[in-house]
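User: Sequence for D-malate dehydrogenase (decarboxylating) below. C-alpha cells please.
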Amino acid sequence: MKTFKVAVIPGDGIGPEVIEEGVKVMKKIAQLDGRMQFEFTYFPWGCEYYVEHGKMMADDGIEQLKSFDAIYLGAVGYPGVPDHISLWGLLLRIRKEFDQYVNIRPITLLNGAPCPIIGGSKETIDMLFIRENSEGEYAGAGDWLFKGKPEEVVLQTGVFSRKGTERIIRYAYEIAAESGKTLTSISKANALNYSMVFWDEVFEEVGNEYPNVSTYSYLVDAAAMYMIKDPARFEVVVTSNLFGDILTDIGAALAGGMGLAAGANINPERVYPSMFEPIHGSAPDIAGKGIANPLAALWSASQMFDFFGYEDIGEQLLVAIEKVLEEKTVLTPDLGGNSSTTEIGDRVVELVSALIESAR
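Assistant: C-alpha cells for D-malate dehydrogenase (decarboxylating):
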C-alpha cells in the first residue's frame, strides 16, 4: 500500500468547509480501494494568519512543504487583506518556489450542470486548458517610480523565457498527442510585438516535432468570442499566464459556474510537490453558513488521484460528481438546491463508494 503525504492549507473563507469535504471523500476512497492511504497535515496559513503574524505563511513554510507529495489548498483572500498581499504571499509563492509551471484547468460541462449558452452540452464544451504558471505577466517583474508624484510611472514587465515558453508548449503538445486531440495556441501577437510573437514562433517550432497533432492559433480576443459562440472548436488549449487566467473563468461560466472550477498546479518532474485547488475563491459572503459548493474541491481531488497514478479512481470520483448534478436532489444554493456543503460531500461518498464496490 502506497502512503501519500498531503499538506492541507484550508485557507480563508469557505476554503476550510470545502476542503474538509475533499479530505473526507479521499479518506473514504482510500479505505475502500486499499491501494493507497493518505497522511494529511494541516497548516493554518492564510489571511487570518497574516492579521496575526504579518505574513501569509511561516518564514520556513516552503521548507516545511518540501517533503509532501502534494498540497491541497482551499482558498486565499479575505476582506481587510489586500489581494496582492494574499496572492503573492501564499499561492503565487508556492507556485513559483516549487516550479509548478503547468496549470491544468478542465473545462467540461458535466451532464446536469447549468450552462448559460444555447446548445451547450458535454459534447460541445469539453476542453483542457494548459496555462503557463510560472512567469509571463505574473513574473512580478517591474517597478514603481516617482510614487505619489505627478510624474509617477509604473512598469509591469511580462517575462517570457525560452525555457519557460518551450516547456509549457511542449507539455501541451504531449497531452494533445497522447489524447489524439487538437491543440490550440492563444496569444496576442498583433499587439504584443515581442512576447507574443516569440510565443507564436516557439509554438510553431515545437510543433514541427509533432506532425500528427492538428493545431490552431487564435488571438485572445477572438478566442474569447469563439469560446461562447463555438466552444466545440477547442480541445487542448495552451496559453500564457494572464490569458489563461482570464479565459478559464470564461470556461468556468460555460461549464456550470465557479463552484465546479477545479485546478492543478503541476511540477511535472516531481522534484517538488504539486498543488491542487478549487478556483472559486474564498467567497467571504457565504463563509460559515455551510452552503458552499464543495464539488470544485472534489474535482481537484480527482485531479490529485490522476496525478498519483490512480486515473481509474479519478474518473470514478468525477462520475460521482456528475451523478450528483444529474440527480438534482442534493445541490447547494448556487446550483438551485438547498442542501448543505456536508450533505453534498456525503452524497458523493455514497456514490463513489458504490462505484468502487461495483468495479471490484
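The chain is about 40% helix and 20% strand.
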